[in-house]
TrEMBL record:
Key words, A-Z: ATP-binding, Kinase, Nucleotide-binding, Transferase
Family under the similarity heading: Belongs to the DCK/DGK family.
Keyword Flavoprotein set for record: no
Protein name in the entry: Deoxynucleoside kinase
GO cellular component: cytoplasm
Domain Deoxynucleoside kinase positions: 6-204
Binding positions for ATP per the UniProt entry: G10, P11, I12, G13, V14, G15, K16, T17, S18, R137, I138, A139, M140, R141
GO molecular function: ATP binding; deoxynucleoside kinase activity
Length: 210
């Protein structure tokens, strides 16, 4: 295999970007970071989910689509491996929670059209965490735009992620999913935890590359 595409996923605040940076540095992968805070609808969304969800999700979908196009042409197609701190399938997780019956079918139609020929992950790293862990980490990083995130919203989101990955592994048995329990590991502040997680990821890479 000439190039490998790893995506790191999990709820808001769980540590996706930090782990993606570590993978990039230790494995020599090109890093793809999600452009989250450039979304002009994000602050309004946390204040009024029903009012701004469709605009928010369409903005994210179009930006993620363009990023995937770029990494395919500029890196993967040239044999350069990539690690991303998101997977585009997260659009469906959020949309199914936030969009109503009127807009969800339209959104999913557009999603299917845009992603049908996009590069697929060779490995998905799923960062799993409890509501207390996630809310504590969101509070610790202290981003103004996240201060209006409600605990109930995050509880639903965590449940949605868990359900999605149960179904994903049934539908895509050929795509390995490495689940990391972030309640018991803090790879941002404890080097031994990072070494443990990176060891698991490197084991998966050896299997993928044969």
């Amino acid at each position: 295999m000439d190039s490998v595409f790893i995506t790191v996923e999990g709820p808001i605040g769980v540590g996706k970007t930090s782990l993606s940076h570590a993978i990039s540095q230790q494995c020599g992968f090109q890093l793809l970071e999600e452009i989250v805070y450039a979304n002009p609808f994000l602050g309004k969304f946390y204040e009024n989910i029903a009012e701004w969800s469709f605009q928010l999700e369409m903005f994210f979908l179009c930006n993620r689509y363009k990023q995937l196009q770029d990494i395919h042409e500029q890196y993967l197609h040239k044999g350069i491996s990539v690690v991303s701190d998101y997977n585009i399938f997260k659009n469906t997780i959020f949309a199914k929670r936030t969009l109503g019956n009127r807009n969800l079918p339209k959104f999913l139609q557009i999603y299917d059209i845009l992603t049908q020929d996009m590069p697929q992950s060779h490995l998905v790293v799923y960062l799993s965490a409890s509501i207390d862990t996630v809310m504590n980490r969101i509070a610790m990083r202290g981003r103004d735009i996240e201060r209006n995130i409600k605990r109930e919203y995050m509880e639903q989101l965590i449940a949605d992620y868990d359900e999605f990955f149960r179904e994903f592994q049934l539908r895509h048995p050929d795509t390995p999913v490495l689940t990391i329990d972030c309640d018991s590991l803090d790879y941002v502040h404890r080097p031994q935890d990072l070494a443990h997680v990176m060891g698991k990821i490197k084991e998966q890479l050896q299997l993928i590359r044969g």
